[in-house]
Amino acid sequence: MSRARAIFLSASVPHPKRSAKYFDTADPVAIGAAVSALVNVILGRRLLIWGGHPSITPMIWTVAADLGVDYAAWVHLFQSRLFEDDFPKENAQFKNVTYVRSVDGKRGPSLAEMRRRMIGSFEYEAGVFIGGMEGVEDEFALFTKRHQKTPVLPFASTGGAALLLYDQTQGLPSSLMDSLDYVGIFHRLLDISASELRRMHPAMAVRRRRKSVEHRPLSRPGRPLNR
Question: Residue 166: enclosing H or E segment and its boundaries?
Answer without folding.
Answer: helix 160-168
